[in-house]
Automatic annotation (TrEMBL):
Keywords: Antibiotic biosynthesis, Dioxygenase, Oxidoreductase. Its cofactor is Fe(2+). GO terms for biological process: antibiotic biosynthetic process. It comes from the Bacteria. The keyword Oxidoreductase applies. One of its GO terms (molecular function) is 2-oxoglutarate-dependent dioxygenase activity. It comes from Azotobacter chroococcum NCIMB 8003. This is Taurine catabolism dioxygenase TauD, TfdA family protein 2.
Amino acid sequence: MNELQTCFERRAPEGSELPILITPAEAGEPLLDAFPRLRAQIERHLATVGGVLLRGFGVPSLEAFREFAAAFGHPLLNYEFGSTPRTAVGGGVYTSTEYPAHQPIPLHNEQAYTREWPMKLWLHCVTAASEGGETPIADSRAVYRRMPAAIRERFAPGILYVRNYGDFDVPWQKVFNTESRAEVEAFCRRAGIRWEWKPDGELRTSQLCQAIEVHPVSGETLWFNQAHLFHVSNLQPEVRESLEELLGIENVPRNTYFADGSPIPDAIFDEVRAVLDAETVSFRWQEGDVLMLDNMLAAHARAPFKGARKVVVAMAEPHGNLDRF
């Protein structure tokens, strides 16, 4: 075991292998040079464990990171129908979610609030925070197994996501990357999203999406949704109270409901979040790290941090279930 492996520390539930650590033949070996040797190993671990951490390799630029991600053979995806602010770096590489440093981002599978999502996800630590800033991960299969049976049964028909765009959330123009209402409507029509233009010119959408999904390759059943992240219980209590009083519950920026449109009690999400916490794997970033995830097998999050932090992301291999609902 080399020095890089012995200094890798993580907090993880019993039995978890996430993430598999892969280190270079010699310190600083360029990641692109190592790719031909490592590809089969990476893909094997990705398919079984769900995530690998490449540590100690040379990643001299964002372009080198982009080339590594693209080398797996799938065009890198644009960030469409986004739910959080982020900035395009170029060539399919984006900043990670630009939320204030003191706010945590809960565990989630990328774009699991839609019916189309990337299968592959890469995160590259350009600058590690001086304190905090981890990207916790979790096995979506283990989350499903640990989730109380009553919740799995109640969520099985799907989750209804309702979004109100505007001053209190990401504007629809940024979410849909257009100023054209006609283009928004065309996107929604294709994606199975209901839309409504409100009297003030703002947009409301609703979409029934999966809560539980089956991996298209392994056939394993997964917890795969962002219901807990979009539900009003994810807001700080004083923010939630203010928004509900000002806007009414039907106009809060985002919320989730059972498939039949009925409200989901906060207590259910207390249980969901407890399961996610129990399955969380956490480790400290080192500058130069590249974390590659199967986006269905592994969820990810972001811990609060202090100091400068820069993590960029790339996505590839679209998959979905547009024909289901």
